[in-house]
What we know:
By secondary structure, the chain is an alpha+beta fold. The longest helix is centred in the last third of the chain and has 28 residues, at 548-575.
Amino acid sequence: MDQADIPARLLKRExxxxxxxxxxxxxxxxxxxxxxxxxxxPDMQEVAFLRSPLAHASITGVxxxxxxxxxxxxxEMMADATDIGSPSSxxxxxxxxxxxxxxxxxxxxxxxIAMAVAPTxxxxxxxxxxxxxxxxxxxVYHNVDSALAATGEFMHPGWKDNRFLTLRANRDFDxxxxxxxxxxxxxxxxxxxxxxPLEGKSVLAYWDFQTEQLVVVxxxxxxxxxxxxxxxxxSMNEExxxxxxxxxxxxxxxxxxxxxxxxxxxxLAKTYRTPFRYLEDRREHLIVGANTRQxxxxxxxxxxRKGKLLALDAVITIDGGAYSYYPFFVGLEPGQAIGNLPGxxxxxxxxxxxxxxxxxxxxxxxxxxxxxxGVCFAIELLMDAVAREVGxxxxxxxxxxxxxxxxxPYVNVANKHFDSGDFPAxxxxxxxxxxxxxxxxxxxxxxxxxxxxxxxxATYTEQSAHGTxxxxxxxxxxxxxxxxxxxxxxxxxxxxxxxxxxxxxxGMETSFAQIANDVLGIPVAxxxxxxxxxxxxxxxxxxxxxxxxxMSGGAISTACKELLPRIQSIAAYLMGVEPSAVALIEGCAVxxxxxxxLSEVGRVWYLTPQDLPANVHxxxxxxxRAYKPNVDTGTFTYATHAVVVAVDTETGEVEILxxxxxxDCGTMVNPMIxxxxxxxxxxxxxxxxxxxxSPYDEQGQPLASTLADYILPGAxxxxxxxxxxxxxxxxxxxxxxxxxxxxxAIAPPAVIFNAVNDALIGTGAAEVLxxxxxxxxxxxxxxxxxxxxESAQ
Length: 793
């Protein structure tokens, strides 16, 4: 039907593009969410872990008092549990095994050696006080330099050095670099940090005697993969394992792996047939979860006199920590780094070597943006350095190098397939929104309080919804393929949507309902999204890589489109019209002046089948469909961030005065949720840029194990953020959507550092090139300037 023919009373926009309030907020705002910590089961035992105080040592003995027999457990007591393995087919990859409890050696401070069970966590911790462990210390590789210098006693048996893997790329580098008139080199570093979700690792397991299943209740973002991992590593049939993921208090990549704690709790429940639970406390997280972002870049840009890049040379070194986790092994970080370093630019000469080095720190985790925060930081600081070298505005040099809209779709030097968009337009608009001309005038006038004003910008791409081709090339043990969705219309006209991905704060219950509403017209309030339970949902590899809306959203849309004609056919029969005349609007089937509620369609199928047409579709009102884009090399969201800062050269304090974002994630399902994701990501990116750091001493001891030492941005540190949207649909996805979950966290370090370095021009200060940008580091950079020396006196 033409929309003009639909009665106004039936029109209420709730589908794709509508700012529908989040359905899930109704429970969270009144404290009725259901997290692992909220579960209360009869006879449940709490678990605490005894953790290593040393970074690298052999375990020469463990003494457990006889009174603790059956209450304290070691690795050798878990004979039917295998070490966690994360294989890869990448030729240079060195395999390592991660034991559920340390076996013979500890490789980082905080590695679990023993576990105790008791009715309360406090009692379990007290039991561990009586366990005595003897150690023989081994050489400590506290950073990549010490690890690479080792000639023996490597991190894992059978290794020939301390590298997890080495990746290399070279495309026309020598030929194009030789043509350059300008050569600019920089060394850029991101410090190690934690992910710090509101809820840490949380896992509860029990034996269901009715179904003869091990039930694992976990704050995971990959319930189906966790089920596979637990079954494999406990030598169980997969149908004997069920994973339930209730509400999850943030994940950001931290909850996308099989952890030793998961395996330990599952083993206890399998073995003793009673409930066991472990809830990570904040100090454990800050010690054992200090496992992301630590990158070191040596970069050289080759350009012409206008700043047009011809070639890029890079060596990227990543501190991968002690272990590779299942299933998203440590190779993801270097793989994403080497592939995404060229960013949104058109240069055609590229040489890069990426090393992922094993050290005596916790094993590396995927964190919101997986390597792209680091590569954006590196390439965008280098772009500003090139601009200063050639004497042009940094944004003008970027315009010289960005892929133009007319070139889309575009395959860049690292074989990234950009699907759609207008990168230069996003940059132009961000510069307009920030009012650069007025900012430069303000800089020239100077500030009454003596602070210095700086402007910075950064443009990036966010590869999202990576498909089978990409993951297969990384040699993963689990390669994502199709996502599935099951939909069912109920007898009273509601809709159930079942998906295998799981939400950890992204608003999926709302967005997925909107996608179904867009096709079937059923009110969002009548659509129930079921996720987070492997017994109730179809398979998906999970929620990561900004893939859920593209993959599971595509499956929902595809399934709803298949159900649509079935509903129309029954409704048309009941109204005495042709199916082509029927539209589904706001829970009604409408044909001209005729309409019936969808509950009539449901009633006839389920309750009064004698009223059905003779040729009714035998698939009924339930559909299950799998989906992946035909082109599965990923979609590419992009954005430009721009910022104005004020720098106090006496105190080293940096204040963000203005922050603008121009983003394009294709078709927006819910612009309000897109903005929430962007703002939340920027808050995390500000933490990376200015506050968060997990330092270690030469003995591998963590120096930030409480929130008094590990600083997080709060409400007063996050400025008002102005967002403008472009909307260039992807040609490859079902309704043009691209991923948006990670993008906000990618650009803040780059844009803030560029602004601060801009503010320091003319002071003689050294460029700031290492996160986080603390007052101490800023004042150290100012020591080289007259202004800085005067301020220090």
